[in-house]
Amino acid sequence: MTKWVLRLLGVAAGAVLVYAAITAVQVVSSSRTDDRSPADAIVVLGAAQYDGTPSPALQRRLDHALDLYRDGVATEIVLTGSKQPDDRFTEAFAGYKYLIAAGVPEQDLRLVDDGASTWESLAAAQRVLRNEGAESVVLVSDSYHNRRLQSIASELGLDATVSSTGSRPTPRQVANETARVSVGQLLGYRRLFNATG
Q1: Which one of 50, 52, 69, 96 is separated from 88 by 20 to 30 angstroms, measured CA to CA?
Q2: Measured between alpha carbons, how far is 57 from 60 in angstroms, rounded to an integer?
């Protein structure tokens, strides 16, 4: 009896390892995606800001979105990201200020600053865009997020492609993202982000 239990546990552990390895390959492979097909809007996923100044990670995303905008990929940029309890500004507002200073007209920018997770931010952006009649989007974040962004967009019914900042993911980033994607694909991203943020 004990031998069968140990064998079953070994098979289960092996299956988990194979699943994690496949997911890691998907995360790395997706990190190379840079789709610049024309879309209705560019959606920038939020990252840290410091009293209204974008962090280096957020600045890379904003600069990439600016390049896409100037290349004519879309005529509208949607800025997402809320704020931490003690912050004065949201991530979306920090991005808005940055792009205004870079010369993007105010009418081409949309702020979506509700949502404490990637899933919530994309769901909120989807509602805004749907009200405007927008159907297709290009999602901008760091490269190692691409697989998760594609999966969340699919879960939300968004017609989305990804164009990342191009930064190469580190092994630690791949490992962390693999864990999140592995669980998200099994349980659904809405449930995952409701539990973890």
Answers
A1: 69
A2: 5
Return the half-sphere exposure (C-beta side, CA atoms, 13 A cut-off) of residue 49: 30
Q: State which residues form the domain around 78.
A: 40-196
The CATH code of the domain that includes 172 is 3.40.50.620
Cross-strand bridge partners of residue 113: none
Around Cβ 174, how many Cβ atoms within 10 Å?
18
In this predicted structure, which of 20-29, 88-97, 161-170 has the lowest mean pLDDT?
20-29
Query: What's the pTM value of the predicted model, to 2 decimals?
Result: 0.88
Q: Give yes or no for residue 195 having a pLDDT over 60.
A: no
Domain membership flag for residue 75: yes
Note whether 163 and 63 are within 8 A (CB): no
What is the per-residue pLDDT for 55?
A: 95
Q: What is the domain count for the chain?
A: 1
**Nearest to 86, CA basis, from 56, 119, 51:** 51
Alpha helices (H) in the chain, listed in sequence order:
2-30, 56-70, 91-101, 118-132, 146-156, 171-187, 189-196
Token reading at 100: 């205004």
Residues with Cβ within 8 Å of residue 188, at least 6 apart in sequence: 155
